[in-house]
């Protein structure tokens, strides 16, 4: 980085970084430059504008250059800053944990609607595959009367999720368990709501995803097997044994998986209804299944 005219001010370095990111094919270059610079200087993004004439000292320039290099190497902004905004909070993220996506806010919205409808009785909510904890922490803090539990196979994910929960004083209603899908739980009708954003990318499609995803994000959280539906099939088949009669299963799916999910639903005897919700781009993103009231196991 060489400035031909005077010191590197915040404004000047943002313009330079925006151009550099653009010429390297980095998505949302201006936004990335602003997030990285405010992280580096430990100020709010707004302060970049309020302090646009502030010159950067040598140490600040050196550390900012390191962050720019990492982004040029395609590391996601959220791993570089260690945080990602989701729903109403900022969540800690780290390599080994899927970065929460705006698409997944549709899952939170659908779950809050379900929890808002059932009245005030305390309900039990389970999340399978907790990742950073963004979904279950968002639910637990809005519904302190619910008893929430979340599981993951990855101990890294459980650690990050637990630290995100610890930052929310209202989240004393949330526990974590290690294990695959329903394996840590007793096979009995105990949950009113099960939510999950399982891995659903077909294995052969992973290589073609952006380098930010396929080189940096955990395969465990992405790879859904040959047709992408392996985990969705397992969860749909097993959830009926753990839901109360009339209980709800909500899952995020790939936008092109509606037909496949419909087929699995037709092969499962336990559900009374299926419904799909769109994401903000108008694509099928979340499936809602309601467990039948009859045929259910007694409580
Ligand atoms: N939505 C993520 C992506 O497009 C995938 C998340 C998942 O498999 N659950 O990369």
> How confident is the prediction overall: mean pLDDT?
94
Structural class computed from helices and strand pairing: alpha/beta
Estimate the global geometry from the Cα principal axes. elongated
Please report the number of helical segments: 11
* CATH topology name of the largest domain: Rossmann fold
Write the layout of secondary structure elements.
Layout: H1 10-23, H2 29-41, H3 45-50, H4 58-72, H5 77-81, E1 83-86, E2 89-92, H6 105-117, E3 124-128, H7 134-142, E4 147-152, H8 155-166, E5 174-178, E6 191-196, H9 211-214, H10 230-239, E7 243-252, H11 258-267, E8 271-278, E9 284-291
Parallel strand pairs: 3-4, 3-6, 4-5, 6-7
Antiparallel strand pairs: 1-2, 7-9, 8-9
Helix pairs in contact: 1-2, 2-4, 6-7
Bound molecules: glutamine.
Describe the structure.
The chain has helices at 10-23, 29-41, 45-50, 58-72, 77-81, 105-117, 134-142, 155-166, 211-214, 230-239, 258-267, and strands at residues 83-86, 89-92, 124-128, 147-152, 174-178, 191-196, 243-252, 271-278, 284-291. The protein is built from eleven helices and nine strands. The protein is an alpha/beta fold and 299 residues long. The chain has two domains: 10-73; 86-291, Vaccinia Virus protein VP39 (Rossmann fold). It binds glutamine. Residues 101, 103, 197-201, 213, 222, 252 line the site of glutamine.
């Amino acid at each position: 980085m060489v400035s031909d005219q005077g010191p590197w001010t915040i404004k000047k370095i943002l313009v330079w970084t925006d151009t550099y990111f653009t010429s390297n094919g980095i998505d949302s270059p201006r936004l990335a430059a602003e997030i990285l610079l405010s992280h580096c200087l430990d100020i709010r993004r707004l302060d970049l504008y309020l302090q646009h004439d502030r010159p950067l000292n040598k140490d600040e320039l050196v550390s900012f250059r390191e962050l720019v290099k990492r982004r040029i190497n395609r590391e996601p902004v959220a791993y570089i800053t260690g945080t990602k905004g989701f729903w109403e909070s900022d969540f800690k993220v780290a390599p080994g944990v899927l970065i929460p996506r705006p698409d997944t806010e549709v899952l939170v919205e659908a779950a809050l609607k379900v929890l808002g409808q059932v009245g005030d009785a305390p309900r039990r909510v389970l999340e399978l595959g907790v990742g950073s904890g963004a979904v279950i922490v968002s639910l637990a803090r809005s519904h302190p009367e619910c008893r929430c539990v979340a599981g993951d196979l990855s101990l890294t994910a459980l650690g990050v999720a637990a630290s995100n929960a610890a930052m929310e004083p209202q989240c004393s209603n949330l526990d974590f368990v290690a294990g695959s899908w329903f394996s840590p739980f007793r096979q009995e009708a105990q949950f009113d709501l099960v939510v999950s954003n399982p891995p659903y990318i077909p294995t052969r499609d992973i290589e073609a995803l952006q380098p930010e995803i396929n080189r940096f994000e955990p395969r465990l959280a992405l790879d859904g097997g040959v047709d992408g539906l392996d985990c969705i099939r397992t969860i749909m088949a097993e959830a009926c044994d753990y839901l109360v009669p009339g209980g709800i299963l909500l899952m995020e799916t790939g936008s092109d998986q509606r037909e496949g999910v419909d087929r699995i639903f037709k092969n499962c005897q336990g559900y009374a209804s299926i419904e799909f919700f769109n994401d903000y781009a108008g694509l099928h993103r979340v499936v809602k299944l309601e467990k039948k009231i009859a045929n259910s196991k007694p409580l």
